[in-house]
Amino acid sequence: MAEKRTLLAVIGDENTTTGLLLAGIGQISNSNTELADKNFFVYQEGKTTREEITDIFEHFTEERDDIAILLINQHVAEIIRSKIDAFVNPFPAILEIPSKDHPYDPEKDSVLKRVRKLFGE
């Protein structure tokens, strides 16, 4: 199952996505469907809808089998928090990351919540 999972994907604001693309994580396929073309999604505050974020999250986590890690800005993850908290599959691993304008809050991170639960905190 994990052999073909070789990509990172990102759902993030423009600065985060641009930085990760400059670091080399971008991948664009020759597929005919709009969602399958790339492994990144740029969130635009005030323009991107909750439905768009939900659709791309579901696409990256349920439909694509080549993504190993999904990086998502924590402030974007808050918009679809119930979806992220309900996701329990080992792949792709979902990692919440800070953005330039929104600092990281460990109290909101779904991975840290699960770790605390395991240790009885």
Automatic annotation (TrEMBL):
A molecular function (GO) term: proton-transporting ATPase activity, rotational mechanism
Entry keyword annotation includes rRNA-binding: no
InterPro entries: ATPase_V1-cplx_f_g_su, ATPase_V1-cplx_fsu_euk, ATPase_V1_fsu_sf
Topology in membrane: Peripheral membrane protein
Keywords on record: Hydrogen ion transport, Ion transport, Membrane, Transport, Vacuole
Any GO CC annotation of this UniProt entry: fungal-type vacuole membrane
Subcellular location: Vacuole membrane
Family affiliation: Belongs to the V-ATPase F subunit family.
Subunit structure: V-ATPase is a heteromultimeric enzyme composed of a peripheral catalytic V1 complex (components A to H) attached to an integral membrane V0 proton pore complex (components: a, c, c', c'', d, e, f and VOA1).
Function text: Subunit of the V1 complex of vacuolar(H+)-ATPase (V-ATPase), a multisubunit enzyme composed of a peripheral complex (V1) that hydrolyzes ATP and a membrane integral complex (V0) that translocates protons. V-ATPase is responsible for acidifying and maintaining the pH of intracellular compartments.
Protein name in the entry: V-type proton ATPase subunit F
